[in-house]
């Protein structure tokens, strides 16, 4: 009797797991060889957060442009030179924060708004 109850609870747990997978991922239905309609969960797809990555890169360029427009190009270059003379991590940061055409364009557009 005890074994039957444990077996029943194990089967109910398996059904609950299958049902939650069907709800989360969606499902496809197929007819097996006996004519029974069987619902199977869709395969997991790896979703790349394209919008989030683009937003992150755009935010980074806007931050660089804000710093460039707020400090001015001479002060910004002086601070980059200080970073370049530091250790390897600071030098890498200076190369990432260097003024590029995208940053310069955004800073030029942002400049009149800050003054």
Walk me through the topology:
Layout: H1 2-25, E1 27-31, E2 37-41, H2 50-71, H3 73-84, H4 88-96, H5 101-114
Transmembrane segments: 50-70
Keywords: Membrane, Transmembrane, Transmembrane helix
Short structural description:
The protein is mostly helical and 115 residues long.
Write up what this structure looks like:
Keywords: Membrane, Transmembrane, Transmembrane helix. This protein is mainly α and about 120 residues long. The chain has 2 domains: about 1-40, no CATH class; about 50-115, no CATH class. Helix content is about 70%, strand content about 10%. The chain contains 5 helices and 2 strands. It has helices at about 1-25, 50-70, 75-85, 90-95, 100-115, and strands spanning about 25-30, 35-40. Helix 2 (about 50-70) crosses helix 3, helix 2 packs across helix 5 and helix 3 (about 75-85) packs antiparallel against helix 4.
Radius of gyration: 29 Å
Low-confidence stretches: none
- Using the alpha-carbon principal axes, give the shape: elongated
Which class do the helix and strand fractions yield?
mainly alpha
> How many domains, as an integer?
2
Strand % is 5-15%
Question: What's the β-strand tally?
Answer: 2
The H-and-E topology, N to C, reads as HEEHHHH
Approximate helicity band: over 70%
First-to-last CA distance: 82 Å
Number of helices, where a helix is a run of at least 4 consecutive DSSP H or I residues? 5
Q: Strand order within the widest sheet?
A: 1-2
- Integer average pLDDT: 87
Specify the biggest β-sheet: 2 strands, antiparallel
Keywords: Membrane, Transmembrane, Transmembrane helix
Transmembrane segments: 50-70
């Amino acid at each position: 009797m005890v074994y039957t109850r444990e077996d029943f609870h194990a089967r109910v747990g398996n059904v609950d797991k299958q049902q939650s997978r069907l709800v989360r991922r969606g499902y496809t239905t197929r007819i097996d060889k006996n004519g029974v309609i069987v619902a199977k969960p869709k395969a997991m797809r790896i979703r790349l957060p394209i919008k989030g990555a683009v937003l992150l890169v755009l935010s980074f360029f806007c931050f660089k442009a804000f710093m460039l427009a707020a400090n001015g190009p001479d002060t910004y270059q002086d601070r980059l030179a200080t970073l370049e003379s530091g250790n390897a991590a600071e030098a890498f940061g200076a190369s990432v924060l260097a003024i590029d055409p995208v940053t310069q364009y955004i800073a030029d557009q942002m400049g009149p708004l800050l003054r």
